[in-house]
Amino acid sequence: MFIDEIDKETILKPLQVVVGIVERKQTLPILSNILIENQNGRIRFTATDLEIQITTITNTSDKNEQNKAITVNGKKLQEILRVLPDSSKVTIDIKENKAQIKSNKSRFSLQTLPAQDFPKLNNQLENSKTITLPQKELKSLLSSVQYAMAQQDVRYYLNGVLLIVEGNKLKAVATDGHRLAYNAGIINGDFEKQEIILPRKAVVELSRLLADNEEIVEFEFSQQQVKVSFSGITLITKVIDGKFPDYERVIPKYSNHLSMERVQVQQALQRAAILSNEKFRGVRFILTEKNLSIISNNSEQEEAQEEIETDYHGEALDVGFNVNYLMDGLNNISSSTATFSFGDPNSSILMTTPDNQEFRYVVMPMRI
To answer: How far apart are CA 80 and CA 343, in angstroms?
Structure first.
């Protein structure tokens, strides 16, 4: 018996941890599979797409001396377990290259592939450094910038988050060429400056798996690979080899500042977005003495206009931005106040918050 009478949740929870990186369509069939190893009652689950690998372990009361391993289709096994009644007991046996799954009067038979053929990532952590920080701090840091990552850009180095360890700071930067998000947090230690680009998929998975608590994350990194360990989960990923843009040059220093209630601006932008051009998603910011007008229109000559009273006393401005980019920034800060800083009508907008002196969000202007 590979796995004897066990609560379905004991298998389903760790399976859900690793199955997120499994793509439905694979060039290698075994990459659709999860490696399950039963080592004397400790069941280890591993998934990989050759770029990233996630492993987690669950303990069972089954202490039969055994050391067996199989690979089965991860998504199918997850779906089977998910639809079984709550508190179901599950048994898994292996017969003739098939995994036989039984629960009450339900029977399923899944194809297996040899465990020895499962392609685990090689260790590339030579000369690595390790930092530790609470899970919620790493989760918050990634969440505050990840929406600005590029998606499938030919400039492959933009499809991820730049992490910089320097002194006692961990800095995170993401940009898709149209906007840039920057944030930093304090870590223990005093490190020489080192930069790595964490791939998009690894960032998304970490944001999904990290808990909002004080438990410690061990973050080990080299120039080739990153290993993140927390809550019984180990995520290993290759890093992106490339030169990230000089983010410090992109972040402007302006003297025109405007502080507004975050929710008020958020809601005004949501309303204006309804009648913005579906393709370009542009809105105009027209700033005058003590007033901000947000105006959008579309190809059908429809228009929306929002007025917000402000304490603005700078030069009058008329500048356009992508409304989705502005809302992304506002949606990912927790502060009740957002500060917008402006240059001229051809300059980017800088968003900061009074609660976090490190956070910067830059959105490039657009012609409307």
So the answer is: 57
- Check whether 65 has a pLDDT greater than 70: no
| DSSP reduced 3-state for 323 | helix
Residue given tokens 């840091």 in the structure block? 141
User: Under a CB-based contact definition with an 8 Å cutoff, are residues 235 and 209 in contact?
Assistant: yes
For the full predicted model, state whether its pTM sits above 0.85: yes
Homologous superfamily (CATH) for 129-249: DNA Polymerase III, subunit A, domain 2 (3.10.150.10)
Q: Which segments of the chain belong to CATH 3.10.150.10?
A: 3-117, 129-249, 252-363
- Which residue carries 């402000």 as its tokens? 310
Q: What average pLDDT does this structure show over 84-91?
A: 94
Q: How far apart are CA 215 and CA 332, in angstroms?
A: 23
- State the CB neighbour count (10 A cutoff) for residue 9: 14
The answer on pLDDT for 62 being more than 70 is: no
Residue 239 per-residue DSSP state: P
Return the CATH architecture of domain 252-363: Roll (3.10)
Q: What is the pLDDT of residues 147-193, one digit of tens each?
A: 999 999 999 999 999 999 999 999 999 999 999 999 999 999 999 99
